[in-house]
Amino acid sequence: MPANQEPAAEFDPAPHGRSRVGRTFASLQERGRRALSSRAWRLRLFGLLAVQAGVAATIAWFVAYQFLDNSSPIFAPTTAVGIVAAAMGSRLRRTVELLVGVVLGLAIGDTLMPLFGIGPWQTGVVVVLAIIVAVLFKGGGSLLTQAGGTAVLVATLEPPVRDLSIPRFVDAAVGGLIGLGVGLLLVPIHPQRTLLRLAEPVVGPAVAAMHELAAALRVRDLGQAERSLRGLRNLGPQLTALDEGLSAAQEVVRLAPLRWRERHSLAFHAESIRHLERTLHSCRSLARRLTTALKDDEPIPEEFPAAIDLLADSVLTLRCTIREHEEPQKPREQLLAGVALVGRAQGEAVRNPTRPHTHRLGYSGMIAAGEFRTAAHDLLTASGLDTEEAAALVRRAVERGGQD
Fold first, then answer.
1. Model-level pTM?
2. Domain span at 378
């Protein structure tokens, strides 16, 4: 959403104190609404995971207690919950890592604890050795965490008795399979809904940063332009979460029978997300170049900020049309209008190569114009056009803008 702009307070100096209190109260209200909205978003996104984790832990405990003759099941429900918690990534890969981590933790714990006994330094030694072995296996974060955590459980919750690794591993394996079954078969996530919710914290701040950049260019405010650039750069964690969600969604439609019918539509969403990410990288380069143009006091024609506003609006419009399953005609028109404006800002096109071309943009501005066209091309492709058709539309829009 666009950045909030508070009204100026210098028009009425008499009630200045009340105005400041009012602005403070309004700011607190806005922060409260944002915090509430963020909590609601997280609840919508991860609420199903809580249900999956509860169901998986219940089934894993029951199976281990009833069928594996384990009077105190620990590893089965623990591993099941760990698998469910891996929903925003590759569950199959995470399942293998968790089980390997359990094996390492159990093997090292059951080997060393009968020799050293139970105690604080013994626990620390076992954890260190378990993680070192996991590192030597070139394990990821899940493997390291599970190896160390399992070693702690062996060192603190169980007596130092040999020959318990196999029963514990069976418990963990059963829990992992149950967690995988609940997450992929019994209660799978909704792929498209999950991706749309993960895209919210990416699209909203990106659009706000682009509008802020356009406003900064109009008044040549270098500080505001740098803030917009920082806002675009800070989207890294959100993009990572979106990528992990895409991997999870693709895994679900591949393995969950309840979601097989959504394979075709998810393929379109996946392609759109990839092009959206490329667009954001181009927007970041665009903001960096235009910030440099302000630093170097280069000319920035008024058409350029207007084009950036159109680019930002097209991202929101495209998201709405994809969500509503509508033809994305409006965002395409916005993008091509923005490309034409950038072409006009760049200067009149010269057909005769012997004639000099007088640019209205400086060095950084010319590079920024190219980044804008790249971003527009990626968004047109995200709307469903093929690469060649999108490139042809961009070229025609540039020529039209240069002739105006």
1. 0.70
2. 191-403
| Cβ-Cβ contacts under 8 Å for 155 (sequence gap 6 or more) | 109, 113, 118, 122, 123, 126, 127
Residue 388, Cβ density class (10 Å: 0-12 exposed, 13-18 middle, ≥19 buried) = exposed
Cβ within 8 Å of residue 126, ≥6 positions away: 108, 109, 112, 113, 151, 152, 154, 155
How far apart, in whole angstroms, are the C-alpha atoms of residue 122 and residue 401? 74
Of 186, 218, 243, the position where a domain reaches its end is: 186
DSSP string for residues in 75-101: HHHHHHHHHHGGGGS-HHHHHHHHHHH
CA 285 from chain centre, in angstroms, equals: 19
Residue 57 has pLDDT above 60, yes or no: yes
Amino acid at 8: A
Report pLDDT digits (tens) over 338-391: 999 998 888 765 555 554 445 678 899 999 999 999 999 999 999 989 899 999
Indicate the residue among 130, 154, 186 that finishes a domain. Answer: 186
Q: Which residue has the tokens 């025609």?
A: 396
